[in-house]
């Protein structure tokens, strides 16, 4: 019934927005114009022209148009990764290589196959990319974008056309996250061929095997694509094998030259054995050890979308996207501190089910306002999500038997989290001159988060006898309406652009903040939402095929930043745990720079000369992040967690005929994992993470129609860790994978 109501609401919202767009088109106060290239004169708008494919560029990062597919990118910190230019091990979803040209990213390597994407920036926790809005083809793919924004599904990099990243300014169009948005765009089928096929096979170290098959084409007015992928590995540590299956289908039909419908569906399932964490001492002795043999993780993800694109007239377009997510994940294992031996006994299971449905509708117009050319974008978002999360006692076995048993939920909780989100947003690109554009924007958002359910309350005496055993009913609801505003400025001179942007940000508390039971983590019952703002000032541009550059300064401020501090149990054990709360105000500031230069062009060779095209890529950030909490001297002035002072990635890319290679060096500086800036804890859930360096090498050779790929990840066999976990995949220090080698083949028919 609720889903039906949401669908009706989405339809009504779409019709209302369309009506508003038509009214705006006929308004007396605003003059229509056929201009499409802002600032140019006597230019005829050609709405029916489509460009197939991306502009060819030799650089890893390409620029995004000011306005594209119902999104305004002008005057914002944006980056586009074109997968055709990336020389990386995409079979393993290698984030370090694929995102190598994105300045300032911190990466968690929780598994060796990229099952879960973990990226952060500017002091934002990389945990399952939860501080970014994550999307596929423009729609949400996380568990719940506001209530539980963790991404358990990562689109297969082998199937992507590009990845678009918008930093904090993405809050106005995409949502309220501090990080911005990461949008994965799947490859579209070819428009000239009725049938094409592609097969990718990869094998490598530790039993890794991957196979991907894809067919697609265009018949008349209909384009289609179907893909299937299978991946598995034994893992480099004991108890770390996994098995993953993924399917994707896409169809687009042009009903008329001005109206088309696109639909896609994604299904993914994987089961992963989790080797757990280590203490610092155990990691130093043998990072390949595993002290948890009974921890498992299972994910079933189902996504779908239907999008209507309508060219209403010569100046007005509309896009309406319906999307749904019907998914689940279950975690099973021993959550006790890693310095406590697993002697068997009951395990803990956390079972989550996510049912989301929503619509985003945007209307874009190109016109003049007070004689100035402008592109105006307005839209609405309607979203309803219901998450069910249960935690309790499970079997005492060692297998992947995801069933509550014994005392079951009496030792845990059973909650439903209904979440409603209604938003309206508007932005414009106003051309003041041939060089100057101003981009104002606003977003109004209403969020209603509710928690209703019960949890077990058990108290035992010193002899272990159960003296209190009851179930406590609990209901919480938080309703808030927020208004976010932003403004950007762009000045273009020749091939370079100066840009500046100031945008308000907001992040609501998550369902995990409302109810979770974990001996390593305690959540403040009075935890509240975060607010803040992001400012960017930078210069970027591309000079022919010689140089690509993007250098920017940023400042990110928080009020009531949510973080974790180290605390201890009461006597007699005094065991350490993390306490999650609003630590206080904070800020991060720094410089992010990325440049890629063609050494071949630099010494005077032309693009058509038969010499290797050698590119040098240098990408780095220097960041300072500090807490400002005068009321708590133990926190005031401390370094924000997950803020390495330096992140540097540099690579040498060689292209020569059928041969391509990439040698990448990644350096991440030392960082803390909690606001207390603890150097060490006995349970290893808090403590500093040492700086580390990793070298990756990838080479490909094409003998049409076959491409052969050889990759060596972690070429110098560095031993390092990127994160400390307080729960799954097992509390403690999580070691990253050592040297591994992969051989792959791609056949296109």
Task: Describe what this molecule looks like in 3D.
The protein is mostly beta strands and 749 residues long. The protein has one domain: TonB-dependent receptor, beta-barrel domain (Maltoporin, Chain A, Beta Barrel), CATH 2.40.170.20. It has 6 helices and 36 strands. The strands form 5 sheets. It has a 22-stranded antiparallel β-barrel. Strands 2-5-10-11-8-9 form a 6-stranded mixed sheet, with no helix packed on it. A two-stranded antiparallel ribbon has the order 3-4.
Shape: globular
Report the end-to-end length measured between terminal Cα atoms.
Answer: 47 Å
Rounded mean pLDDT is 87
How would you characterize the largest beta sheet? 22 strands, antiparallel, barrel
Q: Find the CATH superfamily.
A: TonB-dependent receptor, beta-barrel domain
CATH architecture: Beta Barrel
Low-confidence stretches: 1-55
Radius of gyration: 26 Å
List keywords for this structure.
single chain, 749 residues, mainly beta, Maltoporin, Chain A, 22-stranded antiparallel barrel, six-stranded mixed beta sheet, 6% helix, 54% strand, globular, disordered N terminus
């Amino acid at each position: 019934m609720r889903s039906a109501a949401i669908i009706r609401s989405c339809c009504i919202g779409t019709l209302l927005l369309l009506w508003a767009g038509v009214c705006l088109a006929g308004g007396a106060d605003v003059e229509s114009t056929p201009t499409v290239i802002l600032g140019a004169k006597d230019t005829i708008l050609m709405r029916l022209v489509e460009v197939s494919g991306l502009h060819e560029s030799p650089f890893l990062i390409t620029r995004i148009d000011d306005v594209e597919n119902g999104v305004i990118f002008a005057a914002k910190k944006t980056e586009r990764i074109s997968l055709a230019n990336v020389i990386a091990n995409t079979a393993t979803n290698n984030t370090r290589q694929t995102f190598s040209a994105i300045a300032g990213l911190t990466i968690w390597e929780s598994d060796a196959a990229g099952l879960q994407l973990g990226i952060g920036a500017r002091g934002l926790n990389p945990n399952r990319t939860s501080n970014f809005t994550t999307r596929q083809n423009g729609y949400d793919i996380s568990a719940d974008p506001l209530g539980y924004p963790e991404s358990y599904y990562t689109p297969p990099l082998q199937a992507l056309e590009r990845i678009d990243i918008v930093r904090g300014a993405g809050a106005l169009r995409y949502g309220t996250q501090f990080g911005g948005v990461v949008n994965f765009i799947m490859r579209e089928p070819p428009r000239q061929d009725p049938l094409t096929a592609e097969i990718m096979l990869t094998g490598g170290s530790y039993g890794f095997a991957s196979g991907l098959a894809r067919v697609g084409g265009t018949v008349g007015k209909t384009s289609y694509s179907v893909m299937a992928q299978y991946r598995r590995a034994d893992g480099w540590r004991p108890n770390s094998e996994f098995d993953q299956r993924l399917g994707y289908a896409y169809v687009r039909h042009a009903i008329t030259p001005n109206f088309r419908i696109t639909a896609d569906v994604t299904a993914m399932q994987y089961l992963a054995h989790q080797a757990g964490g280590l203490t610092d001492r155990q990691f130093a002795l043998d990072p390949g050890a595993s002290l948890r043999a009974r921890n498992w993780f299972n994910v079933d993800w189902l996504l779908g979308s239907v999008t209507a694109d309508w060219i209403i007239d010569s100046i007005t377009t509309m896009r309406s996207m319906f999307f749904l997510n019907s998914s689940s994940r279950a975690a099973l294992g021993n959550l006790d501190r890693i310095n406590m031996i697993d002697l068997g006994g009951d395990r803990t299971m956390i079972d989550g089910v996510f049912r989301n449905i929503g619509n985003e509708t945007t209307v874009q117009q190109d016109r003049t306002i007070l004689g100035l050319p402008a592109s105006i974008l307005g839209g609405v978002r309607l979203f309803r999500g219901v998450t069910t999360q249960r935690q309790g006692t499970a079997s005492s076995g060692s297998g992947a038997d995801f069933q509550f048993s014994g005392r079951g939920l009496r030792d845990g909780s059973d909650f439903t989290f209904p979440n409603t989100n209604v938003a309206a947003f508007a932005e414009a690109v106003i051309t003041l001159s041939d060089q100057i554009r101003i981009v104002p924007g606003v977003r109004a958002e209403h969020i209603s988060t509710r928690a209703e359910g019960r949890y077990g309350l058990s108290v035992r005496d010193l002899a272990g006898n159960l003296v209190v055993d009851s179930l406590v009913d609990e209901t919480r609801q938080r309703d808030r309406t927020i208004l976010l505003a932003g403004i950007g400025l762009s000045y273009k001179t020749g091939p370079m652009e100066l840009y500046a942007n100031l945008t308000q940000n907001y992040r609501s508390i998550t369902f995990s903040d409302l109810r979770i039971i974990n001996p390593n983590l305690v959540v403040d019952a009075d935890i509240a939402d975060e607010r803040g703002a992001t400012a960017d000032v930078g210069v970027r541009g591309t000079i022919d095929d010689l140089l690509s550059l993007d250098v920017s300064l940023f400042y990110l401020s928080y009020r009531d930043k949510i973080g974790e501090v180290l605390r201890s149990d009461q006597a007699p054990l005094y065991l350490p745990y993390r306490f999650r709360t609003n630590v206080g105000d904070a800020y991060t500031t720094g410089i992010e720079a990325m440049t890629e230069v063609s050494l071949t062009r630099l010494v005077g060779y032309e693009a058509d000369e038969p010499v290797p095209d050698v590119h040098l890529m240098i990408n780095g950030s220097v960041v300072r992040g500090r807490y400002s909490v005068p009321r708590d001297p133990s926190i005031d002035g401390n370094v924000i967690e997950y803020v390495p002072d330096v992140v540097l990635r540099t690579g040498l890319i060689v292209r020569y005929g059928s041969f391509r290679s990439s040698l990448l060096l990644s350096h991440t500086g030392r960082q803390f994992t909690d606001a207390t800036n603890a150097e060490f804890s006995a349970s290893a859930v808090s403590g500093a993470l040492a700086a580390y360096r990793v070298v990756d090498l990838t080479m490909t050779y094409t003998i049409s129609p076959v491409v052969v790929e050889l990759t060596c990840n972690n070429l110098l066999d560095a031993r390092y860790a990127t994160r400390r976990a307080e729960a799954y995949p097992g509390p403690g220090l999580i070691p990253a994978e050592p040297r591994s080698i992969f051989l792959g083949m791609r056949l296109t028919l």
